[in-house]
Amino acid sequence: MAVLNPSKYMELLPMEVRSAINKVIQVLEGSFTGLWMPDNLLNATYHYIRNRGKLIRPTLVLLMAYALGNGSGLERAILPAASVELIHTASLLQDDIMDQQRIRRGVKTPYSIYGPHTAMLASDLIIAKAVEYAIRSGDNDIVFELLNSSIKLAIGQSFESELSSRANVTIDDYLRLIYYKTASLIESSMVVGAYSVNVKDDEVISKIRDVGRFVGIAFQVRDDVIDYLNIDSGNPGANTDEINIVRIMSKGNGDVRGAIDKARGLLNEMLDNAVKVIREVVNNEVLVNYINLLRI
């Protein structure tokens, strides 16, 4: 079991999608150009834009647009993809504050460097810019999709705080939590990709939502297993206060190995479901192969 280098996620992408990702990065890096603000706020705002991860969410926007648009229409997906990544970035800043997280992606967090107040204001700026980019896409369906996803993220953050004080967190609690906190934005990423190339058929969009939900659940379960085993050198492992599927599954009998196997089984089941629906809707092997990188 290993943590893939971000470059592995890029290697599978068609040249057109790689080019579009680079344009998304340019949009993100220019988001606050020309706007004066104190240095600490500026640095906190740009922290995760500069110390970015694998860009999975904007890549899913672009891959879905690529698959449904037969390789065309990617230009219309760039601003929505940037908006998705900014919403995710804002959620990281808020997560750092709520969890008092000091290290993420191998570096100190804005919370630990600049304090909670500056990190909070940076998240506000980023959310505002995400809304701007969604509006500039010119598609109200994209705007409302991303607004609704942001609402779900906030609900997820609140629910996580509630669950952290409970002694009897169930798998149903966990699945509800990770849908709101993680899977909802991945679901919206794929839907926004479809909207970007003017795919609005209700049945198709419903299936794409299913794909996003399956992938989002798998993504969080994978992170939980990696955190529990502490095999990502860039991030600290899960602490005893975090809601983690391995801890939940092993609580009654102490069988950590068995819990890890069950978690991996759930992860791969979700990915199998996602692949099945993708082949019903678009039958695009590039998207399938990209999603299969989440298997462990």
UniProtKB/TrEMBL annotation:
A Pfam family matched in the record: polyprenyl_synt
InterPro entries from the UniProt entry: Isoprenoid_synthase_dom_sf, Polyprenyl_synt, Polyprenyl_synt_CS
Which cofactors, if any, are listed as required? Mg(2+)
One GO BP: isoprenoid biosynthetic process
What UniProt keywords apply to this chain's record, in alphabetical order?
Magnesium, Metal-binding, Transferase
UniProt key word Transferase: yes
GO MF annotation terms = metal ion binding; prenyltransferase activity
- Superkingdom of origin organism: Archaea
Q: Which PANTHER family match?
A: GERANYLGERANYL PYROPHOSPHATE SYNTHASE, SHORT CHAIN ISOPRENYL DIPHOSPHATE SYNTHASE
Family per record: Belongs to the FPP/GGPP synthase family.
Indicate what this protein is called per its UniProt record.
Polyprenyl synthetase
Q: Which organism is it from?
A: Vulcanisaeta distributa (strain DSM 14429 / JCM 11212 / NBRC 100878 / IC-017)
